[in-house]
Structure prediction request, 51 residues.
Amino acid sequence: MPELTARVAAELGAVVSSIAFERWSRTPTEQTFGQIARQVLVEVCASAAVC
Prediction:
């Protein structure tokens, strides 16, 4: 089971990073990449709670 947990965490991290980079590079903002990534992580966690 730890392998599954690690894989899910890695996949979610990749998704969050990809979405955050997309937003950061396409949107003129004063937010740092880290701030946007944290915001995306919150959104992904919230969407997982709905499933």
Remarks:
- The mean pLDDT is 93.
- The longest helix spans residues 2-26.
